[in-house]
Amino acid sequence: MTIVFKALARRILNAFRDLAPIIVVIAFFQIVVLQQPFPNLADTLVGLVCVVLGLALFIHGLESGLFPLGEAIAQAFAKKSSVVALLSFAFCLGFGTTVAEPALMAVATEAASVVAQSGHIADNENVRASYAFSLRIVVALSVGTAVVIGVFRILKGWPIHVMIISGYAIVTCLTFLAPREIIGIAYDSGGVTTSTITVPLLTALGVGLASSIRGRNPMVDGFGLIAFASITPMIFVLVYGMVS
């Protein structure tokens, strides 16, 4: 029990150290530049404590649970030697983690509100919810496809830089063809997919798979799934805007 408390205390201290620059910047501009007291100081301090504790527990959960689980599953699929099962799992993992991504939910909801206010869709709750859900599904499908491509790249040993450059070339071409209103949403969709839930599992999957395949280097081949998960949502959402 003492070891557990020591480890937790170390996590909390590290989390506070990581957040310290943000705290200093906010406090400096609030006190020195704006010269105003903090609004609801008690609530701010309580929120800060919650953020520090949450970050410490999140990092501990990643290292003790999600990372080992992702690597173990990847290694089990590699030993099973079933490419279809592995690619199916990769798609489901990418889709499932993305559709539940809190950052994507926030962006999709905000995008639906702005689109409704601009008159492109009806401004009522059901239509906005439908638009936000459709956007989430499109992005989730794109990340599922991205993980399949990334896993297939690891299996085949294809060079990642060629695929990444090709992906951004496609994004650039589609940008000139897509409606102007969808471009910003598409670009943000590529960023929010690589967040709290998606990144740990995809990283563990890539490293675990590369570690289990003979001739693959985890440092060279194990990483890159996150890059694919950033590019494909931009492509899918741009096409979605052109079609819809």
Structure description:
By secondary structure, this protein is mainly α. It is 84% helix and 0% strand. The longest helix is centred in the first third of the chain and has 40 residues. The N and C termini lie far apart (57 Å). The mean pLDDT is 84.
Question: Keywords, please?
Answer:
single chain; 244 residues; mainly alpha; 10 helices; 0% strand
Q: Could you estimate the helical fraction of the residues in percent?
A: over 70%
Low-pLDDT parts are: none
Estimated radius of gyration: 21 Å
Average pLDDT confidence is 84
- Give the oligomeric state: single chain
Biggest sheet features: none
Structural class: mainly alpha
Our count of helices gives 10
End-to-end gap:
57 Å
Coarse shape: globular
SSE order, as H and E? HHHHHHHHHH
Strand content: under 5%
Q: How do you describe this structure in short?
A:
With 244 residues, the chain is mainly α. The protein has helices spanning 2-33, 41-80, 83-99, 102-117, 125-156, 160-177, 180-192, 198-212, 218-221, 225-243. It has ten helices and no strands.
List the helices and strands and how they pair.
Layout: H1 2-33, H2 41-80, H3 83-99, H4 102-117, H5 125-156, H6 160-177, H7 180-192, H8 198-212, H9 218-221, H10 225-243
Helix pairs in contact: 1-2, 2-8, 3-5, 3-8, 4-5, 4-7, 5-8, 5-10, 6-10, 7-10
